[in-house]
Amino acid sequence: MSGQVRQPIELSRMSAHSGRRLADRRTAGYSRMNAVVAEARSWIGTPYVAGASRRGGGCDCLGLVRGVWRTMVGPEPSYPRQPTDAPVSTDVLIHGLRDHMRMVPADHVLHEGQNLVFDLRGATGGGHLGVLCRSGDGWTFLHSYSGRGVTESTLSDPWHGRIVARFLFPMEGR
After folding, report:
1. In whole angstroms, what is the distance from residue 85 CA to residue 26 CA?
2. What is the pLDDT of residues 6-55, one digit of tens each?
3. 58-59 vs 102-103, strand pairing mode
4. How far is 153 from 150, CA to CA, in rounded Å?
5. How many separate helices (H) and strands (E) can be counted in the chain?
6. Residue 37: which H helix or E strand, with range?
7. Which of 86, 87, 152, 163 has a Cα-to-Cα distance from 94 of 20 to 30 A?
């Protein structure tokens, strides 16, 4: 998109019906993303348990996303299990999410409800997941990590700089 200027849609050329459809779709998309954030926030306080995905009982970062998936989309797709103590590589996370979610192009703006993939190779040897949120005027994200469980953290520059991919839950579902 670099170098391209997107032309605004002339509302006078749109029928009332097509404009309403566009507005309905946008409203549905935003309310769906708000529902993703609300569901993810309902997991705050869930303790960290590697390989688990049970609100209140325990989860890791992938378990949080799996739990939100079950509420927002339905039964989980199958995926290869890893040993619970082994860090999951960033590449494995991206490949698995790409199979079941829509990847957000890097030049698109941030929106609440996007699933963030972080590359923490220098820190933990693997990837990390979180759900993007807003709090006041700033960006935050929900994630689960050892010693803390599910929490909402500020998307500070060090975290932001480690984002390597973003994904959206499928729009169909519950």
Report:
1. 41
2. 333 333 333 344 344 434 444 455 688 899 999 999 999 999 999 999 99
3. unpaired
4. 10
5. 4, 8
6. helix 16-41
7. 152
Answer yes or no: are the C-beta atoms of 91 and 110 closer than 8 Å. Answer: no
| Three-state DSSP class for residue 62 | helix
Q: Tell me the one-letter amino acid at 141.
A: F
Quickly tell me which residue has 């409800």 as its tokens: 113
Q: Which two structure tokens, joined as six digits, stand for 32?
A: 């769906």
| The two structure tokens encoding residue 48 | 């960290």
Distance CA 77, CA 103 (A): 17
pLDDT at residue 91 tops 90: no
For the segment 49-89, what is each residue's pLDDT rounded down to a tens digit? 999 999 999 999 999 999 999 999 999 887 655 555 566 77
147's tokens: 């010693």
**Residue with token string 């339905």:** 74
